[in-house]
Amino acid sequence: MPRLVLSGLTKAYGVIKVVDGVELTLEEGEFVSLLGPSGCGKTTTLRMIAGFVDPTGGTISVDGQALSAPGAVVPPERRGMSMIFQSYAIWPNMTVAENVAFGLKLRKLPREEVQRRVTEMLDVVQLGKLAHRYPAELSGGQQQRVALARAIVVKPSVLLLDEPLSNLDANLREEMRFEIRRLHDEFRITTVYVTHDQGEAMATSDRIAVMNAGRIEQVDAPHLLYTRPRTRFVAGFVGRTNLLEARVEDGALLLDGVSLGPASQAGLPADARGSVLVSLRPQAMAILAAPPPASDALVLKAVITERTYLGEAWDYVLRPDGTGLHLRAAAPPLEAHDVGAAVWLRIDPRQVAVVE
Amino acid sequence: MSSSVLPAVAARPSRLRLFEPITLLWVALIAALLVLVAAPLLKLLVISFEEQDTGVFTIQNYFTAYGRQRYIDALINSLLLGTLSAAISTVIAVPMAWAVSRTDMPGKGFTWAMVLAAFIMPPYLGAIGWILLAGPNSGWINVVWRGLTGATDPLVNIYTFTGMAFVIALHSFPLVFIFVKSALDLVSSEMEDAANILGAGTWTAMRKVTLPLVWPSILGGFILIFLETIALFGTPAIIGIPARINVVTTQLWQFFEDPVRVEVAAAYAIPLLLITMGMIAVQKLMLSRKGFVSQTGKGGERREVKLGPWRWVMLGWCVAVAMLSVVKPLTVLLQASFAKAWGRGFSFDNLTLRNYEFLLFEHDVAPRAVWNTVWFSGASATIAGVLALLVAYIVVRKLMRFADALGFLAMAPFVIPGIVMAIGFYAAYAGPPLSLYGSGLLIILAFAARFLPIAYANSQAAIRAVHPEMEEAARILGSGRLHAIRKVTAPLLKTSLLGGWLVVFIVASRELSAAIFLVGPRTRTMSVLLYDLSEQGNFEVVAAFGGILLFITMVIVGIGMKLVGRDFMLRRE
Predict the structure, then answer these.
(1) Each residue's pLDDT tens digit, A21-58
(2) With A124 labelled, which of A39, A50, A54, B448 sits at a CA distance of 20 to 30 A?
(3) Do A154 and B477 count as a contact with CB atoms less than 8 A apart?
(4) CB contact, 8 Å: B492 with chain A?
(5) In whole angstroms, how far apart are CA B383 and each of A100, A298, B449, B516?
(6) B52 burial level (CB within 10 Å; 0-12, 13-18, 19+)
(7) Do A225 and A244 belong together in one domain?
(8) C-beta of residue A52 within 8 angstroms of C-beta of residue A244
(9) What does DSSP say about strands A258-262 and A298-309: parallel, antiparallel, or unpaired?
């Protein structure tokens, strides 16, 4: 039985639907991110799961028990979940240990057990020495660890994280990403993680649900999301891409008359025809100074029209000969080509994705 | 699958939710606010159109209230007095605020302390101090002046219109100071740097850039003092009545002398109410104008302006204000309180504790008045505090659909002059059916209503400072709303709520304008008794009683500073 099921979950303020028919299922121990731009409804979805926002429609159930349906809602305190907030919400009037013990005490555990579990948990997040400090004396990263410890120690049925890293500086953010994933690997708590940062979502999640305008556009493992985006929005939001008009003729995908290989390879049904939109990642192309020897690969002759050096890579804009297209392609730092140079562009057909 | 489980599991909580206690609380709060705020005001309006005893509709009260030149003169006097006091306050306070906020003037701590002292000192005590200083015959300044020059005419006379405005200004200027200083604190030094680099010197930069930036705050402070002055009873009664200067508040008081003409007083009070409402609307409009730094809240870097030798001039100004508003009046009051006869000056054979002894152990009203003041202030601060906290919590957390209506009612007394509110309370609750006249409850309720906005603004700021996620974090871990409030919110609000309680206690303990209309024989407060004593002219006893009042206030302020923070009285709200 799945751990958490969202079915047709909807929240409307007046006529505006901020969350619109969200369907999502999490297996036990799974880590799923809700990824999307601000205002896409991801935080509202999370707050509905937590019980802070009452849905207008749809249901939420945990282990087959309905927690929420329109007009019938279990309050947050009876959901057995826990949550990590954007502001951390560490209570400044309690010590680190008291913060972590709060949920355990509410569960009426014997004092020794509370004590033991708090100590264990603080050791796991490397805060054992700071147990009796007050939050005001801690750094941002340490407060974040307290929040993690406080949420995990109660062994929640579902752990919810609301943009937990957005208040940290860049280095710490990177470190905490791996810390969150490490804790998940250790405790296997079913987790919903809200973020607008795709790097965070990729580093932490088993699956990512990309949200846009209140709807989930695609749910997939991080690498599939990147290589096989299913909608124009997902292709554009996760990483950078070239979105191109292509045609399907006689089972082949054609880009301005050049074949990109069989249409079935790009995920199209056999009888598809007409015009489609394809996503071609800058990393799916290689730029060659000389024509490649083997001709089985997909190769276009092109001219470099713009270039930008980004340190980690070159960012080129190319115009394939005989077309009006402008393609963005990435190349390693040592592969420098001048603007105006004639080059050959090799496309990896496996990384061509047809999007809606 | 989930739909089959749904009715069994989720239906019960839904029914519980409909009857969330918050709904009942909301109804109770609305009722309390209607009793405290709306009813007295409505009654005031209604009674101003009623014939005494019969209750028949009439507009005769308004003809009576404005039918005599004397009554109209009082209204004009009030407006003039308000303007003059506000002008003097502004002249006193703006340079001080600038010097403390932006320059390297020495003695900033001293200046702060003196502003606080001037703020804490009840205005009527200052007035009595100034009678001892500048009374035309025996006032200290005139005695010394005659001694030095041999002149027969007094140098200064407090029993004049300007004298009265001056004394009022000496105790109102802290309001302008707080307004202007907090605005100046937000002006970035780069604003001045930009003027300097284009060739403006320190003074030009101040005149052309810094002060214009805080102009709305200066005007805001001006308006507030104007309104405080036209609603002030103590000083105009103590100085104005002997000087035969009649103002609206003293005239209202005369309508309450036998036979009490509440209907006429109500009619006469309406313009005071309308002026106050209008001016506060104007002030709001002005402060909401865009483009002033004081409103953006952006800090930026701040450096002190180097004044060179001029910093001693600024310090001189601050010291002079401190002497006039605090040191001199306080000195003569203390001297008088320990003197057998205050006119005989500072000498050992003139020293006595008799005045205090008489008040504390022999006077038939004074000990009870002390107790009344503490009890009324404490009770009203508690009522206002609890009410304000509940309303602010509901409003800030948006727990109810019409929560804003609660907030509006809680803030409404801000635009009602205390004296008008007192007449409203008298009209609504003094007589039948409640017949509260002469009871402590009438005064407690009136004080609670009058100072509700202070408590509300305080609670609102405190609750806003507690992130809602603090409570949500407790709830998701398993605590109900009330448990979360008890364990998390309440401990975080404790200090600022205590601060709010103490501020209300202090302002209530010195309140005269509202109390004078509501006290009965057994419910006299210290402020009212002080006024009674001053009418009898026994200044040694008056001064001693003032000393007791100041002592109580200072104890409370001291507790506040220790527990809440040094500037808890002077935060701008």
Answers:
(1) 999 999 999 999 999 999 899 999 999 999 888 899 99
(2) A50
(3) yes
(4) yes
(5) 36, 82, 9, 21
(6) middle
(7) no
(8) no
(9) unpaired
SS3 state of residue A168: coil
One-letter amino acid for residue B211 of the chain: L
Q: What is the ipTM of this complex?
A: 0.79
What's the predicted TM-score (pTM) here?
0.80
Instruction: Determine the distance in angstroms separating the CA of A304 from the nearest CA of chain B, rounded to an integer.
Output: 47
Q: Distance (Å) from the C-alpha of residue B12 to the closest C-alpha of chain A?
A: 8
Least Cα distance to B322 among B111, B495, B136 occurs for B111
The CA-CA-CA angle for residues B373, B376, B379, to 5°, reads 140
Q: Within this chain, do residues A114 and A261 fall inside the same structural domain, yes or no?
A: no
Q: Give A210's contacts (C-beta < 8 A, 6+ positions apart).
A: A35, A36, A216, A217, A218, A219, A225, A233, A234, A237, A238
Last residue of a domain, one of A198, A229, A260: A229
CATH of the domain at A67: 3.40.50.300
Out of A66, A89, A151, name the one closest to residue B10 (CB): A66
CB contact under 8 A, B10 and A7: no
Q: B397-441, pLDDT tens digit by residue?
A: 887 777 788 888 888 888 888 888 999 999 899 887 888 888 899
**Tokens of residue B419, six digits:** 């004296």
**Structure-block tokens of residue B309:** 């030798």
Pairing of strands A82-84, A159-162: parallel
* pLDDT tens-digit readout, A265-299: 777 776 777 888 888 889 888 898 888 776 656 78
Place of tokens 């945990």: A62
pLDDT tens digits for range A301-350: 899 999 999 888 899 999 888 777 889 999 998 888 999 999 988 888 78
Helices H / strands E in chain B, number of each:
31, 0
pLDDT surpassing 50 at residue B351 = yes
Higher pLDDT, residue B81 or B344: B81
C-alpha A280/C-alpha B65 separation (Å) is 86
* Number of domains making up chain A: 2
Which residue on chain A is closest to B488 by alpha carbon? A91
The domain that holds A315 is classified in CATH as 2.40.50.100
* pLDDT category of residue B134 using cuts at 50, 70 and 90: confident
CB A83 within 8 A of CB B476: yes
Q: Point out the domain boundary residue: A200, A229, A258.
A: A229
Q: Pairing state of beta strands A65-69 and A298-309? A: unpaired
Q: Place B571 in a pLDDT band, splitting at 50, 70 and 90.
A: low
Of B1, B13, B477, the CB nearest to A64: B1
Nearest CA-CA distance, residue B25 and chain A, Å: 20
pLDDT greater than 80 at residue B199: no
For A158, the domain range is 4-229
User: What are the DSSP calls for A199-268, one per residue?
Assistant: HHHHHH-SEEEEEETTEEEEEE-HHHHHHS--SHHHHHHSS--EEEEEEEETTEEEETTEEEEEGGGGT-
d(C-alpha A62, C-alpha A268), whole Å: 36
The closest of B111, B297, B311, B105 to B186, measured between CA atoms, is B297
Q: Which residue of B has its CA nearest to A71?
A: B14
Tell me whether residues A83 and B3 touch, CB distance under 8 A.
no
Element holding B551 (H helix, E strand) = helix B539-563
